Amino acid sequence: MTLDRRTAELSVGEIAYVDAGRGEPVVFLHGIPSSADLWRNVAPLLAPMARVIAPDLVGYGASAKPRDAPLDIRAQAGYVRELLESLGVERCAVAGHDIGGGVAQLLALEGGVEALVLTNSISFDGWPVEGVRRVQDLPEERWDDELAEKVVRTSFERGMERFDRMTPEEIEAYLEPWRGQPLALRRAFLAVDGEGLTGTEEALAALEIPVFVLWGEDDPFLPAERGERLGELIPTSTTALLPGVSHYLMEDAPETVGPLISHWLRSMYLGGR
Predict the structure, then answer these.
(1) The CATH number of the domain where 39 resides is what?
(2) What is the pLDDT of residues 137-196, one digit of tens each?
(3) Does residue 1 lie within any of the structural domains?
(4) Between the N and C ends of the chain, which has fewer C-beta atoms within 10 Å?
């Protein structure tokens, strides 16, 4: 399905976001190089019972792509907080994938998060991964629309077990935001700096909120061992590894991942509604 976006003005420019449903808020955060469309098969399952908020992070999707604003996970956590404050949201559940999972962890550690879902998320100090470093090393003069499309396509081709199941329209939704703005994609990759989560182990272990760690077992970027480490560290967590599923687990197995996340949030955050 296509997600209908609204816009809000932040301190660094306009942010596009989905805001659907009514009830307790659930915030969905995507990773690189995707957008809120990553959650298009999960969000509708919760909209009948919750308020679903899914932004395109600043620098991604239909949101502003400022040339001089920081785009690291610490800055993104601030922008998400700014959006939530503008929407009157003080407490919520947060689900995050990839760098969005890093943002989700920072939000949870700051407080105001009542349940946390982490799917194939960056964590600790084990990032950026080698593939991201290679993209970061590409000189600015190499970046054009052709390279940007190749980077995005390769990310999904390598990060999915079933790339062939994606329709042309679905992959186009991830490609279109970067057309004519290849340097914006470069800035997004350069912002994956490996900082922000180092030294958070003690604070994560002290979390008292329910946490769901859901991992595609065949992830070539962020191996399942990282998900297991997160699950072992956080005493309130439940960990599930999905065999035959890779990094973009929402694309690989939407018929499994969507119900898993929605059922867990219903039981652990929405009071079984």
Answers:
(1) 3.40.50.1820
(2) 999 999 999 999 999 999 999 999 999 999 999 999 999 999 999 999 999 999 999 999
(3) no
(4) N
Provide the whole-model pTM: 0.97
The answer as to whether 259 is a domain residue is yes
Query: Is 273 part of a structural domain of the chain?
Result: no
**Three-state secondary structure readout of the chain:** CCCCCEEEEECCEEEEEEEECCCCEEEEECCCCCCHHHHCCCHHHHCCCCEEEEECCCCCCCCCCCCCCCCCHHHHHHHHHHHHHHCCCCCEEEEEEEHHHHHHHHHHHHCCEEEEEEEEECCCCCCCCHHHHHHHCCCHHHCCHHHHHHHHHHHHHHCCCCHHHCCHHHHHHHHHHHCCCHHHHHHHHHCCCCCCCCCCHHHHHCCCCCEEEEEECCCCCCCHHHHHHHHHHCCCEEEEEECCCCCCHHHHCHHHHHHHHHHHHHHHCCCCC
192-217 pLDDT per residue, tens:
999 999 999 999 999 999 999 999 99
- Structure confidence at residue 235 (pLDDT): 96
Q: How many domains does the chain have?
A: 1
Residue ranges of the chain with per-residue pLDDT less than 50 = none
